Automatic annotation (TrEMBL):
Organism per entry: Candidatus Syntrophonatronum acetioxidans
Sorted UniProt keywords: Membrane, Transmembrane, Transmembrane helix
GO BP annotations, alphabetical order: DNA repair; protein secretion by the type II secretion system
Protein name per UniProt: Helix-hairpin-helix DNA-binding motif class 1 domain-containing protein
Transmembrane parts of this sequence: 12-28
Domain Helix-hairpin-helix DNA-binding motif class: start-end pairs: 149-168, 179-198
Secretion signal, residue range per the UniProt entry: none
A molecular function GO annotation: DNA binding
GO cellular component: type II protein secretion system complex
Length: 201
């Protein structure tokens, strides 16, 4: 009987390897296929998953506020800002200070609130706080916009309490009612009774 040639040996070896590979692949498929009772992974359809509480609020953009900028600025007028803007943003939007503007004492870091008027005094004018409300103050002190010096004019409000009011405004936002000033440490009902006719919002 004629023996196999070297070439024929190679062919048979390759065929054998292919057969073994096929058997191995079928075995892998059998092992990888989920069996009855196994864990089934289901992909949620779009729109079925509810967002976690609070996630919708994270997507909300800051509210807009409207501010009147006047006095010693190059382009006085009414401007719209994002909530959280400060006096420096109002001055920049209005073209910066005029040469004759009195810049000393202007707190550029003060927060702006909707309806504020930012007035930059000019040389020769008596200094007033650059932040004023749009309406008449009737001689009362606006506790949402007053400077430390103005707050100290109130009876029972010294430097420490005035600073506490400014800090409270920065951290917790503007007061919605004059009674909310009692949330400041050291200011109670008695102090409120003494100053309530001298303050407004």
């Amino acid at each position: 009987m004629k023996g196999f040639s070297f070439k024929e040996h190679g062919v048979y070896i390759i065929l054998g390897l292919l057969i073994l590979a096929g058997i191995g692949y079928r075995g892998y498929q059998s092992w990888a296929t989920p069996r009855e009772g196994g864990v089934e992974i289901i992909k949620a359809e779009e729109g079925l998953v509810e967002p976690l509480p609070g996630m919708e609020e994270m997507d909300n953009e800051p509210s807009e506020i409207v501010i009147h900028v006047a006095g010693g600025v190059n382009y006085p007028g009414v401007y719209t800002f994002r909530e959280g803007a400060r006096v420096v943003d109002a001055v920049e939007a209005a073209g910066g200070f005029k040469e004759e503007a009195r810049q000393e004492g202007v707190n550029l870091a003060a927060l702006l609130y909707d309806g504020n008027q930012v007035y930059i005094p000019l040389e020769g004018e008596d200094y007033i706080s650059p932040l004023e409300t749009g309406g008449s103050s009737n001689g009362k002190i606006n506790i949402n916009t007053a400077s430390q010096e103005e707050l100290e004019k109130l009876p029972g409000i010294g430097p420490a309490r005035a600073q506490a009011i400014l800090r409270d405004r920065e951290e917790n936002g503007p007061y919605r009612a004059i009674e909310e000033i009692t949330r400041v440490s050291g200011i109670g009902d008695k102090t409120l009774e003494n100053i309530k006719d001298m303050i407004n919002l």
